[in-house]
Design goal:
The complex is a heterodimer of chains A (364) and B (530). Chain A has 13 helices and four strands. Chain A is mainly alpha-helical and 364 residues long. Chain A folds into two domains: 68 residues, no CATH class; 269 residues, Orthogonal Bundle (ABC transporter involved in vitamin B12 uptake, BtuC). A two-stranded antiparallel ribbon of chain A has the order 1-4. In chain B, the strands form five sheets. In chain B, strands 13, 16, 19, 20, 21, 22 and 23 form a seven-stranded mixed β-sheet that branches. In chain B, strands 6-7-8-3-9-10 form a six-stranded mixed β-sheet, sandwiched between helices. In chain B, strands 2-1-4-5 form a four-stranded antiparallel β-sheet, covered by helices on one side. Classes of the chains: A mainly alpha (364), B alpha/beta (530).
Chain lengths: 364, 530
């Protein structure tokens, strides 16, 4: 039998070479697949990997795309470290956007610079509120948070749908399911670089996202709260022995991850859309799950993994547009890349051993 | 009286010698070696057992007893060497094959289904299908033959631990074994239940069945077995006729040196109670828990109170009530520490008052095995202002404190600050005990401080506890190890089915009296139950 044995020490050379090997293998595989399907492999790979990185403004777009993934992903890292499976970040994102949107739409003519901070606070509360439901159900009734968070995603999504088609629809939207535009003070501005000007869509939300990731990393690694989160994930019994309150810890994790997802929703709308519409997220809440795991549940590494996922997404779009490669093929290619990255990750952490003694399947 | 004993011993010796000459060899092991990686668990074991012999296998925790019998029962494969059964070389591929050639084994932890009846449990284990009425008859016949009284139609969950063990033995007997292996069978029994078991085993050996009796209790081995083989660190030290050696000699062979005694405990000269508990009730929160009823327990400065009892009589429930992991103001009358009502104090708040505690389970309760030692230190030191400033963990001081624990308590680590899982049981236990003692608690609650710990670490930990008490700390030790309680305690009380006996000074107690208490002799349950 083959089995995996954790490595005691991971040599630095492994950490560097294995990801490179993973990428090389992906390229070889991609080369093969694209050729078989009749696309020019060199061009396809160019659009996937090189084109999104070829110009400063395109790189800026990667950051914009990665922004919500960073914020949600870092919140999910806290969850998953604590062994709490919140997979409804998508719903929390929508709820955050709705809460923030309510404020923006209620003051359509305000000039106050306080609008944006309050929208951010409300967005956090909205997302936290949506995560609080599964949290309380889990603590009080021991329901499974995977189911509840997932189902609440659809509730939130349909609620938004109803709002923008019904009570919140703008009279000037020509019948489209859109709300009115937010007032200008409710929008997140782009970053102005002196001497250069704006770089594509790069906005202040991206800076905030990176700061949030770093802050979460600090919390996780250096503070007693992070210790609690890890502890509840490793051993709830030890958490109780240690004197922390299990319910409070669980609650705060849900609140933080839900709140961050809500914040991501508000930033996405205020920076890129400017109004509410039926679809405000492109599955960011779900993609962030991959981002969290790709970052090996390290809140700071989320920055890198979110950018990587953004690269694949943007590269896929670019290949689709330039070479008319069908979406499913780009999907397959994304899958291959993730496969090699995760396999490489596993091989970094574990070594494969072969056991000749078949008797190890003891009945003891 | 003494003379009688001596003469009967002589008779026994003569009998044994006769047996030894007459009876043929049943099982023989030649140079059996078992290694796990670089660790040699069994080194060149030479061992034999005659037909109808009761043979003791004696050794400390970790001496390699279990590894050896697992090889006999086919659960492990020897790295080198061979077994001979009736002088024929055999290799036992698995438990099924072991049973087929006539080896039965009763494990330390029972393998019965509590929700099934005795007869159903036995039926499940048999290789060929026998109809229930026929089986019932066989069971009744067999149990009468060996004096094992057990009702075949009773549910296993309603049986006491001793009775469950008898069902296990019975189940083995139905397969007509030639060799019965008993792995630490008395660790879960009261002294009286052990007596009963010994009677059954002696009867069984008279019918020609050999018994391999594994234990670390010297007295039992001397009382029950004809010969004993002593294992130490995976090697056979000697095989002796049990009646020809004293328990002291056995102990010396088992431990390797004169058993180092634990420090003397100084006399308690304080009258004020540090902790007072009375009227502690705790309803069972699941079908497998023992409800606690009207428990009173107090400890003075410098005093060690031992709580004896067989596992599953409410020890873990009591420990949770002591630590504050479970707490209630509604069902507890008094729980004071240093004059403060702490009924509703969390573990955290109790620690703040200067109470230390250490639950039985190392893995995932008192320590987290896949965290580093520093993080395990943080587990109970997180409120120390030197360790935590504004919620930020001060890594340097934490590392220094961890080093101090490792150094003071002789914790052997493979390298600086490893994961807790890379420490041996004894070292991890020394670490967690040290982690609590270094805080200089005024009161210390500890459960099974030396469970599954090697002899060196055991002595170390017991000495540390005595030092702590001699410096004025009040200690409550919950333990199933009577020897431990006799070494440590000033007073001992017994937990039985969630009720706690009064605590009695050590000099008024002997193991027989404790045994009666452990069987519930003090409790109204006992009257009803029997």
């Amino acid at each position: 039998m083959f089995y995996l044995v954790p490595r005691n020490e991971i040599p630095l050379s492994f950490r560097i070479t294995i990801p490179i090997i993973s990428v090389v293998l992906t390229i070889i595989c991609g080369f093969f697949i694209f050729s078989v399907l009749g696309y020019e492999p060199d061009k396809a790979l160019y659009h996937f990997f090189i084109s999104p990185l070829s110009r400063v403004d395109k790189i800026a777009d990667l950051f914009v795309k990665a922004c919500p993934l960073m914020i949600i992903g870092t919140g999910l890292v806290l969850c998953f470290r604590a062994n709490i499976w919140n997979i409804g970040a998508e719903g929390q994102l929508i709820m955050g956007a709705i809460f923030a949107g309510a404020l923006a739409l209620y003051f359509p003519n305000t000039q106050s610079i306080w609008l944006l901070p309050f929208m951010a606070i409300l967005a956090f509360l909205g997302g936290a509120f949506w995560a609080l439901i599964p949290a309380l159900l889990k603590i009080k009734l021991r329901t499974n948070e995977i189911l509840v968070t997932l189902m609440l995603t659809y509730v939130a999504s349909l609620f938004l749908d109803w709002l923008v088609r019904g009570p919140w629809r703008s009279p000037t939207s020509f019948g489209f399911p859109l709300t009115a535009y937010y007032p200008d003070v409710g929008l997140i501005s782009k970053i102005y670089f002196p001497g250069i000007g704006y770089i594509s869509q790069l906005h202040w939300g991206v800076i905030m996202a990176i700061l949030i990731c770093l802050f979460c990393w600090f919390t996780m690694e250096k503070t007693i709260f992070g210790f609690q989160f890890k502890l509840i994930g490793d051993s709830p019994k030890a958490l109780r022995f240690s004197g922390f309150n299990e319910s409070n810890t669980t609650l705060s994790i849900f609140i933080i991850s839900g709140g961050l997802a809500g914040l991501a929703g508000m930033i996405e709308v205020s920076a890129n859309i400017g109004q509410l519409q039926p679809n405000i997220s492109f599955g960011y809440g779900f993609t962030a799950i991959i981002v969290a795991f790709l970052a090996r549940l390290n809140p700071a590494a989320v920055i890198i993994s979110a950018l990587l996922i953004a690269l694949i997404e943007v590269g896929g779009d670019s290949a689709q547009i330039a070479l008319a490669i069908p979406k499913v093929v780009t999907g397959v290619f994304k899958g291959i890349l993730l496969f090699f990255l995760l396999a490489g990750e596993t091989l970094t952490k574990y070594e494969i051993k072969y056991n000749f003694n078949l008797q190890s399947k003891t009945n003891d | 009286m003494n003379e009688n004993k001596v003469s009967s011993n002589r008779n026994n010796q003569i009998k044994i010698k006769v047996c030894m000459i007459k009876k043929p060899l049943l099982l023989e092991s030649r140079n059996i070696t078992k290694s796990f990686g670089s660790f040699i668990a069994n080194d060149q074991i030479n061992f034999d057992i005659f037909e109808g012999e009761i043979h003791g296998l004696l050794g400390e925790n970790g001496a390699g007893k279990s590894t050896f019998v697992k090889m006999v029962y086919g659960l492990l494969e020897p790295s080198e060497g061979a077994f001979f059964w009736n002088s024929k070389k055999i290799s036992i591929k698995g438990p099924q094959e072991a049973r087929n050639i006539g080896i039965g084994m009763v494990f330390q932890h029972f393998t019965l289904f509590p929700t099934l009846t005795v007869i159903e449990n036995i039926q499940l284990a048999l290789s060929e299908k026998i109809s229930s009425p026929e089986l019932r008859e066989t069971i009744i016949k067999k149990s009468a033959e060996f004096g094992i009284t057990v009702d075949p139609d009773i549910y296993v969950r309603d049986l006491s631990v001793g009775e469950q063990q008898r069902v296990e033995v019975l189940r083995c007997l139905l397969q007509n074994p030639k060799l019965l292996i008993m792995d630490e069978p008395t660790s879960v029994l009261t002294p009286q239940e052990s007596e009963q078991l010994f009677r059954v085993l002696k009867k069984l050996s008279k019918t020609g069945c050999s018994i391999l009796f594994i234990s670390h209790k010297l007295r039992e081995v001397k009382e029950l077995t004809q010969r004993a083989t002593i294992l130490r660190r995976g090697c056979v030290i000697d095989t002796v006729a049990s009646s020809e050696v004293s328990t002291e000699q056995l102990a010396k062979m088992m431990v390797g040196s004169d058993p180092q005694n634990v420090k003397p405990k100084s006399v308690v000269n304080s009258d004020d109670y540090l902790v007072r508990i009375s009227g502690l009730n705790r309803p069972a929160d699941n079908p497998f828990a023992a409800p606690l009823e009207d428990i009173s327990l107090s400890v003075k400065a410098g005093q060690i109170i031992g709580v004896a009892g067989i596992a599953g009589n409410g020890q873990s429930e009591l420990m949770e009530a002591l630590t504050g992991e479970w707490r209630s103001t509604a069902t507890v009358d008094v729980f004071n520490a240093f004059g403060t009502d702490i009924r509703n104090y969390s573990a955290h708040e109790r620690r703040q008052l200067g109470i230390g505690f250490l639950p039985e389970e190392r893995h995932g309760h008192s320590a987290v095995t896949n965290m580093k030692l520093t993080e395990n230190t943080l587990l109970t030191h997180h409120n120390n202002p030197v360790i935590q400033k504004f919620a930020i963990v001060q890594n340097e001081t934490l590392e220094n404190l961890t080093d101090e624990i490792v150094h003071n308590f002789d914790v052997r680590t493979p390298f600086q600050n490893p994961l807790a899982s890379s420490l041996s049981g004894g070292n991890l236990q020394k670490f967690v005990v040290g982690r609590e003692i270094i805080k200089k608690p005024r009161v210390f609650f500890v459960a099974q401080p030396t469970w599954g710990v090697d002899i060196g670490a055991t002595k170390f930990i017991r000495n540390a506890l005595i030092d702590l008490a001699n410096n004025g700390c009040g200690i409550i030790v919950i333990s199933q190890d009577l020897e431990e309680l006799f070494e440590l305690s000033d007073e001992i009380c017994v937990l039985f089915r969630g009720k706690l006996s009064e605590s009695m000074p050590l000099k008024e107690l002997d193991s027989e009296k404790i045994g009666m208490l452990m069987g519930g002799e003090f409790s109204p349950h006992f009257q009803r139950g029997q």
